[in-house]
Design goal:
single chain; 516 residues; alpha/beta; 4-stranded antiparallel sheet; 17 helices; 12% strand; globular
Length: 516
């Protein structure tokens, strides 16, 4: 077996096809195209300007993109270096500027650049990783990262299991499927059954919409979703859980899974896992933790206590493409009991599943997730961990959480702003709140501010409705963000808000004048 040498060994030009196909697949042509792309990416990463989002009208972007498409239909078109450069420029210029200090709007991050290069290698090598024989190193890397990260979770090393999935929504669906199949052993073969009660799931009022969507996909239905009350920080109130579960039982529902959140999408709230585990375990209820956003805090010694009690949960969703700063998607689904991972799916297929398991098939994950063809998404994460070690992630997480705390303090000091919660990680919600506005006017003001700030193109922030009123929301995912950028954002929000109020007042005066 040859491991170290990546070349052909004979120096001859690769030429197994002739003509225009040979040009398309020629390694030298690829090298030149890759150099052009990396040059543009270097300039993109080197740009420290404060940028938000250049939101282009879809029709305008469609026209620009259509003009970059070759008219050739009869033969393979000649490679056009200029066309490629324009495509890459259009891609980089019209997307969210995740590497800019002005990007504070979403939960996907600017990646560690090296992760992007490894993702390029994965794309060209194209080794689907659900089965060992197709993606040997990705499957080994998956096992190694599982061992590394489970040390932070605290489950029995001989019992737990981890698989990668394409996104947190799919991971939540898979975990709920495993939980349902454990609670209703015959449901896979016979369909939805009601022995002992109708299947139901208990979730926080702040749970991600993917959990409700998963309930629909599984045939549980919206009416069998049990809503748990939350406190002012958006966390499940343990004292409200038992009454809700008892009420569900009286309705003929069998709650088989309680979904807790470690880093809710709205406010970044962390549910009290230790207290919830103490309530679910005696009832035989599976405790799933949606840690898509916040599970990465486990890597930080300063912040991992947010997930206290995680070792008592049954499963965990963890998005590495959020706060572990790798390309999306890269989601890790952990099970405390590895047998439960195999219980999510119960079918055989001779063309992929081996009749006689061996040392190779032991590394397969195709029987544990929905995807048969799955990208080797673990490779960027494992490579970063191997090259830089966990301190890279811990330092960036600590910086982002510190900057969010700084933003909280700065906004509290401003008399015309209202901060809506104490940040637990790197998400903060607030309102520009000048005196004298009713709920409807306050709601509309936040929407107008968010839309205008986005349109102005320096900052990209998001919004969320809290208690029925819109709030502004920042998610700090970029290590370049400093206090000076937060001060710039506060000034821009205030200036924008005052302009909106003046325009509204002028419009009202005009309306009053017309009525006279």
């Amino acid at each position: 077996m040859q491991i170290a040498d990546g070349g052909s060994g004979n120096g001859e030009k690769w030429n197994s096809v002739d003509g225009d196909l040979a040009e398309v697949f020629d390694p030298l042509n690829f090298h030149q195209a890759a150099a052009q792309c990396t040059l543009r990416l270097w300039r993109y990463l080197d740009d420290s300007a404060v940028k938000g989002l250049d939101l282009v009208e879809p029709a305008v972007l469609m026209k620009a993109a259509r003009e970059l498409m070759t008219d050739e239909r009869e033969r393979v078109a000649d490679f056009d270096e200029g066309r490629l450069g324009q495509i890459v420029d259009l891609y980089l210029n019209t997307g969210i500027q995740v590497h800019s200090p002005g990007y504070m709007g979403r939960q996907f991050s600017g990646v560690v650049p090296l992760a992007g290069l490894v993702d390029l290698v994965s794309s060209v090598a194209n080794q689907p990783s659900s089965f060992y024989e197709a993606g040997q190193l990705p499957n080994v890397a998956e096992r190694l990262m599982a061992e590394e990260l489970n040390r932070l979770i605290g489950w029995d090393p001989a019992e737990f299991a981890m698989v990668t999935t394409s996104g947190g929504s799919l991971a939540n669906l898979t975990a709920l499927l495993a939980a349902r199949n454990r609670a209703f052993p015959g449901i896979w073969a016979r369909g939805v059954a009601e022995e002992g009660g109708r299947p139901a799931v208990a979730i926080s009022e702040e749970a991600h919409y993917s959990v409700s969507r998963a309930a629909g996909v599984l045939g549980i239905g919206e009416e069998q979703i049990v809503r748990l009350p939350v406190d002012g920080q958006g966390r499940i109130r343990p004292d409200g859980v038992v009454p809700v579960l008892d009420a569900a039982a009286r309705r003929g529902l069998k709650v088989f899974c309680l979904v807790a959140s470690s880093g809710t999408t709205s406010m970044g709230a962390f549910d009290p896992l230790d207290e919830l585990a103490a309530l679910t375990r005696p009832r035989g209820i599976w405790l799933h933790v949606d840690g898509a956003h916040g599970a990465s805090l486990l890597v930080s010694e300063r912040h991992r206590d947010r997930l206290r009690g995680l070792a008592e949960a049954d499963s965990l969703t963890w998005d590495a493409h959020k706060m572990l700063f790798v390309p999306a998607p890269c989601t890790l689904l952990f099970y405390r009991d590895g047998d439960a991972a195999r219980g999510a799916f119960q079918q055989r297929a001779s063309y992929v599943f081996d009749e006689e398991p061996d040392v190779y098939s032991d590394f397969d994950s195709g029987d544990k997730n929905l995807e048969c063809t799955k990208r080797p998404m673990i490779m960027p994460l494992w490579t970063l961990w191997s090259v830089y070690g966990p301190a890279l992630f811990a330092r960036k997480i600590d910086h982002l959480c510190a900057m969010t705390g700084q933003a909280h303090r700065m906004l509290r000091a401003e008399p015309d702003f209202t901060v809506l919660h104490e940040p637990e990680a790197n998400i903060l919600c607030f309102r520009y709140d000048p005196a004298g506005l009713d709920r409807t006017a306050l709601h509309r003001l936040q929407l107008a501010i968010r839309n205008r700030v986005r349109a102005d193109g320096r900052f990209f922030i998001s919004k969320v409705d809290l208690d029925g009123v819109a709030a502004l929301r920042v998610v700090l995912m970029n290590h370049r963000i400093g206090a000076e950028h937060l001060a710039m954002l506060i000034t821009e929000i205030r200036t924008t808000g005052q302009r909106v109020l003046r325009e509204n007042a002028a419009r009202d005066d005009q309306k009053d004048g017309d009525q006279r």
